Amino acid sequence: MTASHKLDDTFAALADQTRRALLAKLAEGEARVTDLAAPFAISLNSVSKHIRRLERAGLVHRRLEGREHFLSLSTRPLNEVAAWIEAQRRAWSDQLAALHEMLQGEDDVAKLAGRRGLRRVKK
Amino acid sequence: MTASHKLDDTFAALADQTRRALLAKLAEGEARVTDLAAPFAISLNSVSKHIRRLERAGLVHRRLEGREHFLSLSTRPLNEVAAWIEAQRRAWSDQLAALHEMLQGEDDVAKLAGRRGLRRVKK
DNA sequence: ATTATATTCATCCGACTGGGTGAATATCTA
DNA sequence: TAGATATTCACCCAGTCGGATGAATATAAT
Lengths: 123, 123
Known about the structure:
three-stranded antiparallel sheet; elongated; 3 strands; Arc Repressor Mutant, subunit A; DNA-binding; homodimer
């Protein structure tokens, strides 16, 4: 549940074009809030909010130096997301492979054609 | 912009534990709305809403057969998300590599230590 | 001490979300 | 025809989002 909750936050943080652009910018290196906000038409405050959201998801880290706040990327959450996706894709591929194998089997084919597909997998 | 908008929808659709569980279930094969809803404590209507959201993001496809609605996975959006993440991770790795190379350089080290890190990358 | 810069805090707004309930629709079955 | 099943539609509610604005805070520079 905790892991899922973290994934929730990470996915939600990534579900915004502006925030993804901020992350892409940060991939070029550390940057201050003002630097990050510069290319965007929206207000500095809005960018600040976006950054807070990215922080909450653990995607960026903040380092204070005087009045300047330096942001940098954290890759762990992104790796977790990638892992989930890969697992999902693998499961999907396995299912496709199973279907393929089934279709190559001899007697099951007729039943499959008469019936409506895969379905009854669980209970 | 259109691609970004699609990514927005996909990420948003994935930013929910219930919806991710639905997708995982669908990885086992086609299923009806009722079948998908069975394991969850929430109402059937809520599940129906989640499914609609997954459909909007293009993550599932619906096939009608009489009064039954059969859902199945669509992998394209997931692939797009994976591609974005991989690009991001690659950029981040490149930046790390550049830093590493810089630290192995001779004269830049002093300036780097005195100054505050990477920062001034863009302008 | 004063001014300028960097950033956040406090509010407000319209829009959307996730959950619920009850009614409506459509299809299958007896 | 009547009844059961599968699914959605139409609302309601509290919570959050993304954007804006204006004020507050903290640090730096003069």
